[in-house]
Amino acid sequence: MATYYLDGTSLANSTSIFSDAALTICAADGFYSDGVNSRELVSCSLLPQTACVSCATPCGGVIAATGTAGVYKLNIDVGGTATDIGAIIITFYVGLIPDGLLATFGGVNYNKLSSPNFGKLQGTVGTSPTVIGGISRDCSISGGTFTGDEFLFDGTNFVGSGNTVTYTIPAGNNVLTNGAPGNSVMVIPKTQAAPNVIDISVFAPCPTTGWDIDIQCPTALTSVLTNSTPKTLQNVCSATLDGLLYHVPVNTASTPGNVNRYDYLFVDQNGAIKASDGYYKLPTGAYVGVVDGIVDVTGQNCVTLTISDCDGGGTFTMTELTQGSFIVGDTVQYQTLNPTTGPSGVTKCGTITSIGSGVNTNAVLMSDIIRECGDTTHC
Fold it and tell me: What are the boundaries of each domain within the chain?
């Protein structure tokens, strides 16, 4: 392999490449790479750098690291075709030893995480990593300046680059918790084919480090039927299920579409727009409260009515609009509910057979007015 010389300290900040140490003989035109990024040399001038796709690690699968203090860098290829669209879900596992995560994609920095044990974990300075881990293992992180080796992932292992890195952790980016944060999740939207490489930096300020990271390929998020606009706590149970939110599980009890505390909710299937703050009713007969796109309140149930269709069309369950409006035996108007498109648009009547709470719903109540079976005008 030939030896080349830079007029800067790295490929990124150099203006040219030379064949001799005296920097008098320009290298041949072509592409040059440091294993992470590549730049084209034309007439002794370097063009802007681009991520070296051939050197980037494909998305999907867990990458683990153990070692000493420093900064661990990965370039992850998340696909560059028109079908490589969706939410990129990154799961970062840190035990008690503190480590920080900062991702850069399309020139935008990301450091927001949600922990299955503690919820939102995000540093206040967006250009710096969010450091998570246990308070019991704090190594004077807040406001501290750290120097360590730089490690680059070669597709199999982290290899020292020979460079040292010095950085400071702002006090607001130390978000250590009383216990291990668990498999904390970051969501990065990918709404078009390019760019296709995410730059991941894991900052290890303490003498030792050990963590896992899983960067999944872009995928369309699972939808959840709910109210199209957020409600207050007082009126959420009367909300109409007329919209969709998109779900990223974080809680260990969650699966796609089964929402629990500390999960993410978005307005779009790519995870680009977070759900607005407020309360949302779910088809389960429960409701959740959202703060900054993360579910913060769960476990609350609306009153549900189970009815028998007046024409023998089956049994259906719906949430009550105003608590205490009905008793068993009352007849009400309802519409059946499609879990992805909402109410059917066809109004029917049924007689209440039981009143409960927290029951999965498959219909929506149309009003608080008591009707009668056989009422052809309203049923």
Answer: 5-53, 56-215, 222-301, 303-365
CA angle 290, 294, 298 (to 5 degrees): 55
Is the pLDDT reported for residue 4 higher than 80? yes
* Residue in 96, 93, 35, 29 with CA at minimum distance from that of residue 64: 93
Report the alpha-carbon distance of residue 253 to residue 312 in Å, rounded.
37
As a whole number of angstroms, the distance between CA 327 and CA 355 comes to 8
Least confident of 52-66, 194-208, 271-285, 306-320: 52-66
pLDDT tens column, 134-179 = 999 999 998 889 999 999 998 899 999 888 999 999 999 999 999 9
Task: Concatenate the DSSP letters of all residues of 37-48 into one string.
Answer: EEEEEETTEEPP
Spatial separation of the C-alpha atoms in residues 248 and 349, rounded to whole Å:
36
Do the Cβ atoms of 24 and 10 come closer than 8 Å?
A: no
Taking Cα atoms as reference points, which of 279, 333, 266, 281 lies closest to residue 305? 333
Q: What b/e sequence results for 52-75 when a residue is b if at least 16 CB atoms lie within 10 Å of its CB, and e otherwise?
A: beebbbebeeebebebebbbbbbb
Which string of DSSP letters, residue by residue, matches 209-256?
A: EEEEEEEPPPBPPEEEEE-SS-B-TTTGGG----EEEEEE--STT-BT
